[in-house]
Amino acid sequence: MLELRKDIFADERDDNLKEIGKGTQRQDMLGHVTGTSTYFDDHKLQGMLHMKVLRSQHAHARLRRIDTAEAERSQGVRRIIRGADVPRNLNTLLSLINFGKDDEPSLAVDKVRYKGEPIVAIVADSPREAHEAMAKVRVDYEPLPAVFDVEDALKPGAPVVNEVYPKNTFIYHDVYDHQKLRFGDADRALAGADHVLEQRYQMSPIEHAPTETNGSIAAPDTNGRYVVYTSTQALFFSLDTSAKILDVPSNTFHFVGGTVGGGFGGKVDTLTEPLCILGAMLTGRPVRYVLGREEEMQFGSPRGAERIYLKDGVMRDGRIIARKVRAYFDSGAYTRLSSYAVVKCVAHLPGPYTIPNVHGDVYCVFTNRTPATAMRGFGVTAMDFAIECQMDKLAHLVGMDPMEFRILNAYRDGDMKAHRREAKNCALIECVQVAAEKSKWTLREEFRRMSSRKDGGGGRAAIPATPGETRPRPTAPAQQRTAYDRSLAAPLNEPPREPPPPPPSPPQPAAPSHGATRFSSVFGTRRR
Amino acid sequence: MSKIPLQFRHNGREVAIFVDGGTNLLVALRELIGDMTPKFGCGQGGCGACSVLIDGALHLSCLTLAETVAGRSVETLDGIKQGPQLHPLQRAFMENFAAQCGYCTPGMLMAAKALLDRNPQPSRAEVVEAISGNICRCTGYEPIINAVLAAASGGRASA
Ligand code: FES
Ligand code: FES
Questions:
Q1: Which residues of B touch A229 (CB under 8 A)?
Q2: Which of A79, A289, A468, A495 has a 20 to 30 Å separation from A70 between CA atoms?
Q3: Fold of A179-205+303-477+485-500
Q4: Record: fold of A208-298
């Protein structure tokens, strides 16, 4: 058991964290209403230069020649940055956790793979001069056939978007072109189902459109380091990504952020920092690189498109006995975070329902669209949209009330999930019941009495025989129980139990015997 | 490039600057005056984050040529407090949770102030109309509308 030395931090906060039902003011609210919250762009530095980036006008093209000679001579230009100037001009965001191959340049060198891809960065005295110089860069494109549809991208002979992944799919574990989930025998169950429903769902990309566009300001610091004011939502992630691309130790940078003018996932991709810092390194001056609104919409990464096929088998009594899922995530031209979104999606299948036969194949596909990124539950949101549409249609098919249909199929405590973890602390049934009550939707008595706490486990805890599984059928690994787990054995409608014994109280700090200085980082004062 | 001298009132104070021809008021306020309260969201009149009052009327500073405010009075969020006292609208925004990221808030407050200055008791529909040029991507408009209405009904009396 981990011992927390709470006495050291005794002054910092009380442990009563019960906040639900109370109104609690945001700590940044006063700054917001007085306009004094400091966003990255509110820093004005002496001698600041401005960066603009020339972007691809084509979705897919070879770069035959980039001529910057005239732009170099343009008034106010301090530096023109090309791909060759970027120390490590190939990166993938999740390389920080060793996931995926470097597949994306900071500045395109031989090819552009989506419309809006950065090609040349220009640092000038003013934004206007940077713009004027940008118009003088000559890029000789050789347009290539482009692919914009996930299924077209997988057809033989489709244009190769990204040579790092020549089959247009992300490669998992060095071998697999998709993520698989197998639980029971979905094909056999579908053959025996009373009804089978197969549907296709499509979700378009969604732009976060934060009111503040992405951007950063980088400046040489007084100690040989660089201070970077940024809109990032992921300060240390962006810091490490910049360190990798610029090939310097991460303590070269002091990132300042936290006040973000809307992010929603669209400010984790480190879109501006590496080039901005490189500009500061090459000119020795503060450099500001802010996306305009058009850039934000065209080049700022959106939530990716997804195409989803669902095939479900349902019995007349409303039980879903099989769910087969085939889905394609549109990653755009580069991986960014879509590889991870797919993993998350597969872990989420088949939705919050106990279905004894589940079959999933999910692909992370490259197309010539703007690279996709995180946005509010990415990986799960579109799949849930598809699954819940499907649930309504299935309920209709078997003539059941859609709410009761969900209650019937919902996870109960102790059920085995398709990825072989036991369902714990389930609450879908209760949520549906409350939603029905609040919307004055009548549920039949037996459905009002159903509970996540009963009728789960037992036969529903088994891992079914799964074809193709060569090893002896695995049993689910033992799962750690925590103080927050509901006991499975708890009988129903029992009188309230004795509250669990309180945890042993931490040793009382009679005197500061540990010798540590008691220092409150919140109040900045020394205690005692 | 030759510079144009420009003099105007900024939150009640006379200021004089030199601007390049074509400079917009948003850039003049932020970069030359140093008032960071108006925000850049689009630079093309689409979001309202840059809203300021010119002689009391609501304007988008990103679409206003700086030269055109010569001799006029420009008011930004930085000017609406009375000393240390928050403006009733500021208090109402706080109390009604009318901001999340806060980036639209300066523009929202100026749009709301323009409304209440000319119509102290607006209807809900009038509030909606007044902030219809201001995009908020986080909070949702309900808390903002409620805040403006709260400032209109309660704020005045206690101000
Ligand atoms: S910045 Fe002026 S309307 Fe958006
Ligand atoms: S609070 Fe973020 S845009 Fe309104």
A1: none
A2: A289
A3: Aldehyde Oxidoreductase; domain 4 (3.30.365)
A4: Aldehyde Oxidoreductase; domain 4 (3.30.365)
β-sheet bridge partners, residue B85:
B82
Taking the Cβ of residue A28 and every Cβ of chain B, the question of whether any pair is shorter than 8 Å is answered with: yes
Bridge partner residues of A361 (DSSP): A180, A326
**pLDDT of amino acid A526:** 38
CB A365 within 8 A of CB A331: yes
Return the residue in A39, A41, A128, A211 with the most chain B beta carbons within 10 A, the one to mutate for interface testing. Answer: A211
| Residue with more model confidence, B88 or A2 | B88
ipTM for the whole complex: 0.96
Beta bridge partners of A373: A303
CA dihedral A463, A466, A469, A475 (to 10 degrees): 10
- The alpha carbon of A229 and the centre of ligand 1 are apart by a number of angstroms equal to 22
Q: Is A22 on the interface with B (CB under 8 A)?
A: no
- Per-window interface: B 94-113 vs A, CB < 8 A: 94, 97, 99-106, 109
pLDDT surpassing 70 at residue B49: yes
- For ligand 2, say whether the CB of B76 is within 6 Å of any of its atoms: no
A464 CB near ligand 2 (under 6 Å): no
How far are the Cα atoms of B50, B117, B150 from residue B127, in angstroms, in the given order? Answer: 19, 12, 11
Task: Say yes or no: B57 contacts chain A, CB-CB below 8 A.
Answer: no
Give me the half-sphere count of Cα atoms (radius 13 Å) on the Cβ side of residue B109: 30
Task: Determine, for residues B36 and A42 on separate chains, whether the beta-carbon distance falls below 8 Å.
Answer: yes
- Whether A13 and chain B come into contact, CB under 8 Å, resolves to no
Over residues B16-26, mean pLDDT: 96
Report the chain A residue with the minimal C-alpha distance to residue B147.
Answer: A33
The answer, yes or no, to whether any atom of ligand 1 lies below 6 A from the CB of B27, is: no
Check: CATH 3.40.140.10 for B4-78? no
Instruction: Work out the percent of chain B whose per-residue pLDDT is above 90.
Output: 92
CATH superfamily assigned to domain B88-152: [2Fe-2S]-binding domain (1.10.150.120)
Model confidence, pTM: 0.90
Which pLDDT does position A478 carry in this prediction? 77
| A29, B11, B33 from B14: Cα distances, Å | 30, 8, 11
> 3-state class of A132 per DSSP?
helix
Task: Please identify, by atom number, the ligand 1 atom nearest to the C-alpha of residue B42.
Answer: 4
Q: Chain B closest CA to A22's CA: distance in Å?
A: 13
Q: Is the confidence at residue B86, as pLDDT, over 70?
A: yes
- The CATH superfamily of A49-143 is Aldehyde oxidase/xanthine dehydrogenase, a/b hammerhead (3.90.1170.50)
Q: Which amino acid is at B100?
A: Q
Whether the CB of B99 sits within 6 Å of ligand 2: yes
pLDDT at A2 (0 to 100): 64
b (16+ CB within 10 A) / e for A215-254: bbbbbbeeeeebbbbbbbbbeebbbbbbbbbbebeeebbe
Report d(CA B136, CA B104) in Å as an integer: 6
Residue A474: the pLDDT is 62
Q: What is the pLDDT of residue A485?
A: 79
